[in-house]
Every structure is written in structure tokens, then in C-alpha cells.
Amino acid sequence: MKKLKLVMVGNGMAGVRTLEELLKIAPDLYDITVFGAEPHPNYNRILLSPVLAGEQTIEQIILNPLSWYAEHGITLHLGKTVTTIDRIKRRVVAEDGTEAAYDRLLVATGSNPSSCRCPARTWPA
């Protein structure tokens, strides 16, 4: 059976936790692609202050290292901000032109949607 394509925009704690649960309950259901605006894999944002204060490094607060994404067959696009979500063609496009088609789309950008700068006109009704 062909896997459905799941694209997640955002690479934060809540979105990746959702992926962890999906991988537990249905490990073979999705071919997963993740877009994150930041250059780092998923990290604990709560511990960002100690990193900024020089008390810890970003590597010390990583929750899911690059190897985790690779082990689960997840295509990870770091440092790529999604600028277009085309609901008709079912694809997302990052500002550098990177594209991914989807069957299911999860927008998990949190309260500050830095991973997605999509003007309203790119969201057709």
C-alpha cells in the first residue's frame, strides 16, 4: 500500500511530539516531510534562555537529533520558510523554491508562525 504524504510546516515541540505519536500508532502510514525555518532540529524552547545566557549549548537542548529524523525516514528541510500553501495543487513551497506535495498538511508553527510566511492570497477558498 502506498504511503500518504504528510507535510508538517514547523519543527517545534508540539508538532514533533505529534509526529512521535503518529509513528507509534501508525508507523507505516505516512511519508513525512518537515519544514522548519530555524537551522536546528527540534529543541526544547523552554531551555532557550540558558543557551542565550551561555550556560548551555543548543546541542544540549536538542530533543530530536538529525539521526532521529533519518531513522524514521523523515525528510527534514531546515532553514526553509514556507511562503506558499497551494490547497488546490496540495503542495507547499519554501522561499528558496523547495516544494513538497501533500495528502495531509499539518501547520504546527506555534504562536509565532515563523516557519510559514504565507500571504492570505495563497490560501484559496
Describe this structure in words.
- This protein is an alpha/beta fold and 125 residues long.
- Mean pLDDT is 88; it is low at 120-125.
- The chain is globular.
- It has a single domain (4-122), classed as FAD/NAD(P)-binding domain.
- β1, α1 and β2 (30-36) form a beta-alpha-beta unit.
- The protein is 19% helix and 26% strand.
- The strands form 2 sheets. It has a 4-stranded parallel beta sheet with strand order 3-2-1-7.
- The protein has 3 helices and 7 strands, in the order βαβααβββββ.
- The chain has helices at 13-25, 48-52, 66-71; strands at residues 4-9, 30-36, 75-78, 82-86, 91-94, 99-101, 104-107.
Topology of this protein?
Blueprint: E1 4-9, H1 13-25, E2 30-36, H2 48-52, H3 66-71, E3 75-78, E4 82-86, E5 91-94, E6 99-101, E7 104-107
Percentage beta strand: 25-35%
- Helicity, in percent? 10-25%
* Count of separate DSSP helical elements: 3
CATH homologous superfamily identity = FAD/NAD(P)-binding domain
Major β-sheet strand ordering? 3-2-1-7
Terminus-to-terminus distance: 31 Å
Arithmetic mean of pLDDT: 88
What would CATH call the class?
A: Alpha Beta
Number of individual domains: 1
Features:
125 residues, alpha/beta, FAD/NAD(P)-binding domain, 4-stranded parallel sheet, 3-stranded antiparallel sheet, 3 helices, disordered C terminus
Summarize the structure.
The protein has 125 residues and is an alpha/beta fold.
